[in-house]
Inverse folding.
């Protein structure tokens, strides 16, 4: 069986990506990260998703959040709320975490080389997203080249492939694909600033993009929101 390391945040995109990898016949090793992010609830969601989709193993790696300074997801900085779609897609917001996907992919490559997995999957998206530079196709392609230049496996010809199957899909298309693959979206969490009881705020960029996707897909979001109006 082919082996793959799958980056798993606990949100819709990464859950769908894991389901795609499983459907393609990979034995999947799911990898999540605890960097004391504001939205810690995503880690429990990742555990539930990994179990529900049959990951062979799920690891949560601890990273000192002091390497990720200045982000609204790690520091005492307000998470943007109530932004219009054109505002979400313009520029790089304060929820950007410095070099996060670069750091995560480096860990994924290390684990992949350790378990003889030639494939790495991640759920980045460059259509309905918040403008993060490490979600673009050119970043993924360049990192794949780097992984093959800087590892024993790569220089010996056991090349890594980095798969980003959602990168050109809208959020609505991603949700429809998730439903086709029987992903339980009630297990996922996307909110950047959840309430103490775990409900999503319905107002941050991530909630807005998630809700937009469900509207486009023509189905109801199964999770709870603080603002009931967020469902409409």
């Amino acid at each position: 069986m082919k082996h793959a390391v799958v980056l798993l945040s606990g949100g819709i995109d990464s859950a769908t990506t894991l389901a795609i990898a499983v459907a393609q016949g990979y034995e999947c090793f799911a990898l999540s990260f605890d960097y004391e992010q504001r939205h810690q609830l995503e880690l429990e969601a990742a555990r539930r998703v990994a179990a529900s989709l049959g990951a062979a193993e799920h690891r949560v790696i601890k990273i000192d959040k002091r390497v990720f300074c200045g982000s609204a997801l790690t520091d005492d900085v307000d998470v943007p709320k109530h932004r219009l779609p054109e505002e979400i897609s313009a520029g790089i917001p304060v929820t950007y975490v410095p070099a996060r996907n670069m750091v995560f992919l480096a860990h994924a490559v290390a684990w992949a080389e350790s378990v003889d997995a030639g494939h790495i999957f991640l759920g980045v998206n460059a259509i309905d997203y918040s403008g993060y530079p490490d979600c673009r196709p050119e970043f993924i392609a360049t990192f794949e080249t780097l992984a093959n230049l800087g590892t024993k496996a790569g220089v010996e010809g056991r090349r890594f492939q980095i798969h980003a199957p959602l990168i050109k899909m809208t959020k609505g298309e991603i949700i429809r694909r998730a439903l086709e693959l029987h992903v339980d979206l009630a297990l996922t969490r996307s909110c950047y600033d959840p309430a103490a009881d775990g409900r999503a705020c319905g107002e941050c960029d991530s909630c807005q993009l998630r809700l937009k996707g469900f509207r486009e897909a023509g189905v109801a979001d199964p999770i709870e929101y603080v603002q009931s109006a967020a469902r409409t």
In short: The first helix runs from residue 12 to 23. DSSP finds eight helices and five strands in the chain.
